[in-house]
Amino acid sequence: MGRYCSYCGTKLRENGNFCEGCGKKIINEEEMKKQMTIEIEKEITEKIEKKVRDEIEPRLRKEIESELKKKNEKKFKNWQTTVTFLTIIAFLLLIFLLAKIFSTL
Fold first, then answer.
1. To the nearest 10°, the Cα dihedral for 60, 63, 65, 66?
2. What is the 3-class SS of 17-68, one letter each residue?
3. How many CA within 13 A on the CB side of residue 58?
4. Rounded distance between C-alpha atoms, residue 64 and residue 70, angstroms
5. Is the pTM of this model over 0.70?
6. CB–CB of 4/20 below 8 Å?
7. pLDDT per residue as tens, the chain (105 positions)
């Protein structure tokens, strides 16, 4: 059974390396399988990368932003509590000092 060029369909010589019809290099079956495997792997990789870029990254970004927001809110509440506590202490000291001053008069 004869072989034919996969590009132009010309019948190929048994030991030829190039097609006489179009001049393209003749690829044997093993090389073609390797080439197809590489192309399929590349296509699958591109699809996975696109899915990661389009679907997973935005979801992860939202989760990370949400976590950061929660942490910052907690830090702010802690800071608010500390400031309130120090304000109360300063106010009590002021009252104590004023009472001391007025008691000596």
1. 170
2. CECCCCCCECCCHHHHHHHHHHHHHHHHHHHHHHHHHHHHHHHHHHHHHHHH
3. 5
4. 10
5. no
6. no
7. 678 888 898 888 888 888 899 998 887 778 888 989 999 999 999 999 998 888 888 888 888 899 999 998 988 898 999 999 999 999 999 999 999 998 877
